[in-house]
Specification:
Layout lengths: L18 H13 L7 H11 L3 E8 L5 E4 L11 E2 L4 H8 L3 E5 L2 E10 L2 E10 L4 H22 L4 H6 L6 H9 L4 E3 L3 E8 L7 E8 L2 E9 L3 H20 L4 H16 L5 E9 L4 E7 L5 E4 L2 E5 L18 E4 L5 E5 L15 H13 L5 H15 L8 E8 L12
Antiparallel strand pairs: 1-2, 1-6, 2-3, 4-5, 5-6, 7-8, 8-17, 9-10, 10-11, 11-12, 12-15, 13-14, 13-16, 16-17
Helix pairs in contact: 1-2, 1-4, 6-7, 7-8, 9-10
């Protein structure tokens, strides 16, 4: 040590850059100003530094049936992979990596998770794989997912990849309005789905987790097409505005009511259901403005419908709604849905009805794990059981109260 240099303190933290940090740092540093179409080549470059090849990025289609390869320079663009019945689909549904030995190496499928929302799958091939590879690739896939979601706001390329058929203007409006389709924390998990994916108009949902309070709304605007989509947009906008001013559920209802009546007149309406769940205690409150009663699911079985006093749909100037309350048990799930799901007629001509819905919920709850898988399977099953008929929009939104704590995630091990 030369004169003037200070002796490092005992136990000083090593801040030198390691191999893994450098690779992830390249992704992070170069992504800030990178055009969206260069994200794929950068991912391929970084994967190549760990010996990976034949890189594919697969994105979930709007119907949640297929994983569709993203075109891009240096990407391997193969066939679409079904979400059910393929290694890529298994990684997507489970949220964990899948390794498939093959001639000359191992094909690895890594879920692309933005937070807990499923974006798609990153696929690549390595000659061999060990735990160091798995750890680095897992983190690399997580960062790649964040980049794809961020750059999605600046381009149409990712949206175009996900479409497997033409989309109506009304559906375009609705999809642009939605929050992520799922969210998972140690305390609560949610997942929602709209159908028909390419023709949805008046149905929508929204949610936000503010400290210990989960806010949820489902809406169904009268009519079809662009008029219904416009009303649903105003309803969700009014809901968000009122929610962010921190008023109660009755105040939120009143604000939405005035917004719809003021914009569209008293002959137009939107049915709605607004909820608040304290994720620390399991205390659930809700206001029902014309929706079917939600289902309370306990131990993977529907135990009852959450019947409550209803008020008029928003836009009709109803009285102040009565607040309903329920204390959930750890592991309880609450399924919200719109009337398009149960008022549709099945292939035999009979109305689908709540009894059939409950029967299928009970079956699927015992065969699928996680709210995302349950909602997806339930939607596809119900469409099939109705003979593919979707003459009205339908929404499913599932909430699971886990009763855990999240503070440990804010500390370093």
């Amino acid at each position: 040590m030369t004169a003037g240099e200070s002796q490092p303190e005992k136990g000083a933290v090593d801040r030198s850059e390691g191999f893994g940090e450098r690779l992830l740092g390249v992704l992070l540093d170069q992504a800030h100003e990178m055009p969206p179409h260069l994200i794929a080549p950068l991912i391929v470059e970084v994967v190549g530094r760990v010996g990976g090849r034949d890189v594919s990025v697969l994105l979930q289609d709007y119907e949640q049936l297929m994983l569709v390869p993203l075109p891009g320079t240096r990407l391997t663009v193969g066939e679409r992979a079904p979400i059910d019945g393929s290694p890529a689909g298994t990684a997507f549904r489970s949220g964990t990596s899948v390794e498939v030995p093959q001639a000359g190496g191992v094909r690895i499928y890594l879920p692309l998770l933005d937070g807990s929302d499923q974006v798609g799958v990153l696929a690549l091939t390595l000659d061999t794989v060990d735990d160091d590879d798995r750890r680095l690739l897992h983190r690399m896939a997580g960062l790649a997912a964040h980049m794809l979601v961020t750059k999605n706001s600046y381009t149409d390329q990712f949206v175009q990849t996900r479409r497997r058929e033409p989309m109506s203007v009304a559906a375009e409006v609705q999809w642009s309005l939605l929050p992520p389709l799922s969210m998972s924390t140690p305390q609560v998990a949610v997942a929602g789905i709209l159908e028909p994916a390419y023709e949805v108009a008046g149905d929508s949902f929204d949610y936000a987790l503010n400290d210990d309070i989960l806010h949820v709304a489902t809406v169904d605007a009268m009519g079809h097409g662009l008029d219904a989509a416009t009303m649903a947009t105003v309803a969700i906008g009014a809901y968000r505005h009122a929610r962010r001013t921190d008023v109660g559920l009755s105040g939120i209802y009143a604000f939405m009511d005035r917004a719809i009546a003021g914009q569209f007149g008293l002959e137009h309406f939107v049915t709605a259901q607004m909820m608040r769940l304290n994720v620390a205690t399991g205390h659930l409150q809700w206001v029902n403005a014309g929706h079917p009663a939600p289902l309370l699911i306990r131990n993977h079985q529907v135990v009852r419908q959450l019947h409550s006093p209803t008020t008029l749909p928003v836009g009709f100037g109803g009285d102040e709604p009565q607040l309903s309350e329920q204390t959930l048990q750890v592991g309880d799930r609450v399924l919200c849905f719109t009337d398009g799901l149960i008022e549709e007629h099945d292939a035999g001509g009979e109305q689908f009805g709540e009894e059939q819905l409950i029967a299928w919920v009970n079956r699927i709850e015992h065969t699928e794990e996680g709210v995302r898988a349950v909602v997806r399977s339930l939607s596809h099953t119900l469409i099939r059981e109705r003979g593919g008929i979707t003459s009205d929009d339908a929404t499913l939104f599932l909430i699971e109260w886990r009763g855990g704590a999240a503070d440990h995630l804010a500390t370093l091990e």
